[in-house]
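Support reply, case 0932

Customer input (verbatim):
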Amino acid sequence: MDKLSDFLTHPEVKEQLAKPTSELLTMDFNRDPFRAIYYSKDHMLSPADGFVIYSKEVNPKEDIIEVKGGDYTVNTLLREEIKERCLVIGIFMTCIDPHINRIPTNGYLTHEKLPCLKVTNLSMRPVERAILDQMKLDYNVMRYAFYNEAYKNKVVCPWLDQFYWIVQIADFEVDVIAHFGGRNNYYTQAERFSVIKFGSQCDVIIPLEGKKKFKSLIPDTGEIFHVQAGIDKIVEII
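Our regenerated output:
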């Protein structure tokens, strides 16, 4: 896990940012780097490479962030009404991040396409530009959560006696979320389960009413942090 300022100083990141956009989108964007499988039964690993845009505990009808144009709540993201308080961690993937998603824990994963809340998709590029160019978060341009193609993945973990969700949101320019397995597959921790095309977002939503306790490992310093899928620990399971 790197601070944004440290991440942007990495030689390979500088090299990527110096490339023409066409090369980034046709070559680097589609890479699927080999990664060793890390296993930690006491942690949830990041499902995506990208920047953490929020990490907090909220009630399902409480705004996660303030976004013009709608209620940005757990119930909005899930397109269903739940009652449990949740830990929510949102990760935004930029054009320099691999867009392969990996499962945070062992478990059975089912997925369904979510209905759009609006008619026309929106670009996610303004969020990317705010992070990479201005080194800040701009929540006012995140209305795409109400518009764009999205999938809800439910992960059931028998050993935890718990389930949680992973919500994927795609960019309007390609609007593709593709799963590698069927609708009820078993995955081991850090295994690849899906790919999202172009700028995209991946949220982990964990109900907090179960037997286990979940603690976010994202530092609460007001800084932006970059995480890697299947490598960085984002939640401690107690």
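We compared this against your earlier run and they match. Two observations from our side: The chain has one domain: 2-237. The chain has a mean pLDDT of 88. Please reopen the case if you see a mismatch on your end.
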